[in-house]
Amino acid sequence: MGEFDLIARFFDRGPARVAELGIGDDCALLGSIAAGARLAVTSDMLVGGRHFLLDTDPVGIGHKTLAVNLSDLAAMGAKPVGFTLALALPEANEAWLQGFSRGLFELADRFGCELLGGDTTRGPLNLCVTAFGEVPAQAALRRDRAQPGDDLWVSGELGGAAYALGELLAGAGQTLAQSARERLERPEPRVGLGMALRHLARAAIDLSDGLVQDLGHLCDRSRVGALIDWPSIPLDPALSLLDPVRQQSLSLSGGDDYELLFTAARDNRQAIAALSGRYGPALTRIGRIEAGEGVRILDARGAPVTLPLGGFDHFA
Amino acid sequence: MGEFDLIARFFDRGPARVAELGIGDDCALLGSIAAGARLAVTSDMLVGGRHFLLDTDPVGIGHKTLAVNLSDLAAMGAKPVGFTLALALPEANEAWLQGFSRGLFELADRFGCELLGGDTTRGPLNLCVTAFGEVPAQAALRRDRAQPGDDLWVSGELGGAAYALGELLAGAGQTLAQSARERLERPEPRVGLGMALRHLARAAIDLSDGLVQDLGHLCDRSRVGALIDWPSIPLDPALSLLDPVRQQSLSLSGGDDYELLFTAARDNRQAIAALSGRYGPALTRIGRIEAGEGVRILDARGAPVTLPLGGFDHFA
Fold first, then answer.
1. Which pLDDT tens digit goes with each residue over A68-93?
2. Three-state secondary-structure class, residue B145
3. Which of A61, A97, A210, A264 stands the most exposed, by the fewest C-beta atoms within 10 Å?
4. Does B39 sit within 8 Å of A39, measured CB to CB?
């Protein structure tokens, strides 16, 4: 199977629908964006053996390769439009490609997000998606808009993906519950929620490197600080029997949650609570934005929580 | 040096100029595209040790990583706007990053093409750029518009990059002329030429996998055949002393030329000849489009030329 057969068999799905011109030319052509709208662009690279274990079900890898990008679009309040895929493969393994493309397109089709083009080459397994979405100009959920006094909200439950990764790395994959494994391998991008928050949230970020680290990015960009109320953090059920230190480590510093963290004016508290569960998971108020800088965490007694681990850094 | 320091030191150049929002958020935001314009999107992945030798000057690697994408925009007649960069690095080598980012931004700045965002991770060396350009809706130079009777044109001289790669792989780098090495390591994307051809050319493609293979793609998409007149092929000066079989192999099947191959109505012959040398290299008429299918090559006596090698295929 050559490079062009591979593209034709697994990735070319006929004439473009969203795009004016799709796979098969030097470039894809995207039609005009609606007046007043902006194109949101994000790019994520997944390295085999680093962002996922090499024996992961390829359907899950296909899903996650796109999901982490759609999660970035969601954190911007953008509606997915299309994506490019560049992949380096050690070999043209048909079973793997079949699974990978199935997982990829199942997710893409659910959000009407079209594969526009890309590149296929040989090399150590590497998957790079660049995704595009549309968002009204003034409605984009930027990181730099948080204000002191804002409520701090998070979607879903935290720590499940980091827990599952730890179990897999410890060789405990056989006893890992399917639901825990799916938290790691099939993150659900909160696209509908992000769009619903367009005129309710002030600032937003998606959780990929761990709550405290990602909240730190949002605070840095907004030049504010934040206070997290530890008892209010929604923990993944898989963490329920763990000791408090591990619960804190996994939910505050664990990566790969792909939930939305956002700030909103107190006036919007009821409107946001009314969205809880309507676009997937429940929404939980976990703290507030403060003047100053840095992220503080307080326990049930009001004492500061100290984290044993920082967030994830690929070069630390 | 952590991941975020690395981005700040080598890739973040302050507030966005072209984009409404650049590096540092979940997504970049591109402003509205002009009414009637289309966004051209292309993505190329370069694998260390495969698309370039690992000991290549990092300035050249930075240049080429972007250049191959700008070449795709040029082949569409699009004006570069911006790009994302995702890179996997085996280590955070400062000298390498310094050189790489210098080569990247020198080229980007020449075309006013802004880095919008991306991703940095650890892994086997892999560089993935997705580039964006703007082109008026009806002016895009697609592959599927060639018509029987069209002239077939090429920019510049062919075979130099493949020659240089062969010499480097044979360990003859010490004696390789600088001009030959630059054909391989510093391809110049024909952006100005592509834009000038918007209303003169009918179909276009950039040469990355070799003339015959890339012309074959253009013919397949346009459902036509093509005839190449071998004596008219402009050979890179580095090929002048080689035997004819090697000249044919390098210029017809050698990759990495990054010149533009395009078709145009005979009526535009003089207008195109007048562009020759105005946007970089000379333009040469090398054959014509025919009804039917496939690519034929005729020598000075009108006898068919048979190629010893096919074009490049990553999985063949």
1. 999 999 999 999 999 999 999 999 99
2. helix
3. A97
4. yes
